[in-house]
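Extended Data, panel c. Modelled sequence:
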Amino acid sequence: MPENVLEVRGLRRTFGAVRAVDDVSFALPAGGSLGVVGESGSGKTTTARIVVGLERADGGEVLVRGRSRTARDRTGGRVGGRAARLARAREVQMVFQDPYLSLDPRTGVGAALRETLRLHFPGRDHTRRVTELLDQVGLGTRAAEALPRQLSGGQRQRVAIARALAVEPAVLVLDEAVAALDVSVQAQILNLLADIREQTGIGYLFITHDLGVVRCVTDEIVVMRHGTVVEQGRTEEVLAAPGHPYTRLLLESVPRPGWDPQAIAAARRAL
């Protein structure tokens, strides 16, 4: 297996006159955790959607385990049929900010997991695997019959994580995956993700605006502004001594004793 489980090279995506992603490159080592940080409109979510395959790149390349996910035939369509598309989907899975929107409100937890498993691994009995997944995310078999509306926000996010893990991905993309949760629940989910990474060796791509989350769970960080990467490196080094004014502004924008929002606003206008 290549040292990097995920490589993004010169990624570009425009929407009309807006360059949402402009020459973005980074690498995620196998079993590593990389944070992509920036404010709304920085291009971080568009980058994540391209990595997963929900958006088409105008240029550049995404490689998983050394294989391109952006290869296309002469007509512009993706290379390969249904089996190839399912294989690509298994490689990279995504957990969204609001799991309720990605879960069928009429389908119980166990049934949702079985549906995912049947799609990717047909012809098997998935009862034992469903139990394993529920245990892995700290829910237990009692949650199998529950509907999404009967669960708390943290429990629903655990279901979303279990469904993503069901296909044994190489990369898990977490797009503001704890932003909608209470602080105490955020800590529980982040601890769960840390345990899962240690157990499985899955690579994490965290998309977030929260520097506290980045500091807690990532090894490396990529800072994006207006579609471009302005700084990247080891998380502790970048956050301890940021080299770019925008990174310093993000750090200074975090509320703390003596925090001056007017000074932050002035610095933002100057930048």
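Strands lie at 4-15, 18-29, 33-37, 59-64, 67-68, 92-95, 171-175, 203-208, 220-225, 228-234. This feature is highlighted in the accompanying rendering.
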